[in-house]
Prior knowledge:
The chain is of the alpha+beta class. It has helices at about 10-15, 30-35, 45-50, 90-105, 120-130, 140-145, 150-180, 185-200, 250-270, 275-290, 330-335, and strands at about 20-25, 55, 60-65, 80-85, 110-115, 135, 185, 205-210, 215-220, 225-230, 235-245, 305-310, 315-320, 345-350, 350-360, 360-365.
Amino acid sequence: MAVERIDRGAIEQFVRDRELDVLLLMDPALGQFMTGWMPLEHRDFAVEERALMFVFLSDAEHFVVYRNAALPEAHRLDAIQDIYSCGLMLAEKTQVLIEQLQQRGFKSGTIGAEMDLLPALVYERLYETFPGSRFVDAAAFSRNLRAAKDEHQLRCIRKALAATEDGLQTMLRELARRISDTGSAPVQAIRDLYRQTILSHGVQQFDAQHWVETGGVYARGDLVLFDLVACYGGLLSDFCVPFFLDDQAPPELLERAEIGRRIIDTVAEVIKPGMAGAQAEAAADAALEQEFGDQYETLDIMSRWVIHGLGITIHEEPRIGRDYRAECRTEAKEIIRFDPGVVISIEIAGLMEQMYEMTPQGLARMGEMLARVYSFADA
Length: 379
């Protein structure tokens, strides 16, 4: 049953450590993860299905509030002790939540919640009904609950990435053929070819983020960055490589890409299973400083390396690296862990990114294609 993905021990430990009386989790992506229900149009899920409310109490009791008929019959969370359905409106869901807390004797205390997702209505009603209650942010903990993927989810991500790689290789061959013959290739024709290729793999949704649209054609000598997202079974892959549309890429581009590749390889080598986010970030910084010496702070590319997790959403935890330092608090980086089953992308922003899976032995590169500059010599 998909609900077994919930790490009950981790939840109970978090409740004890933070001295919580109630832990309320509403992240729609966590709802998908916990129920195993992956709608084909996964991005539409977040708007309507925020109905799911997972509630854990300090005595290890738990219950769920969800919109009536929001979940298919096969995903009704049978392993959860109590399930309460309600109408569509947020006010109705909030009322059911309050009634169930009152029936369980809750009057006032400490409430953990994903504060960046908690609707104002829910916050106000809880504060009014249970005066004196204190709220503790549980967003980082909630996101860490779905960071490690089970084998089914890993297979879905691998299939999404395999479809992307096939689409990239097919595009490169077609671009080489058309540009060698005529000097250009219509953007729309290449887009259509990519779409047909990945859909043949059973991919339900995809996003090609960086197509060149100027003049509607690709021409010899263009540098095109393909940052490609694909969805299989509700799980996402994210892979980015540049194509230089000629027989060989120029030396300065190859040199820059080689630096990017060294950064990715260095970071991937030092992050080990079980590391917390802050520990992994410090280890990566130290390894890069040793690898590049005095260049470390002067290379512009160094300021843009990041790691982000992959799964139901495109930028999951763990998230570390220079672009995330102002956004992600130290506390969050202590909670987030690189446990086996975590899938990440190591990204050199604006140039390339490579996907990895954390195994008991360390990070293992996913897919067949290496993130580097490709040219017609690779077609």
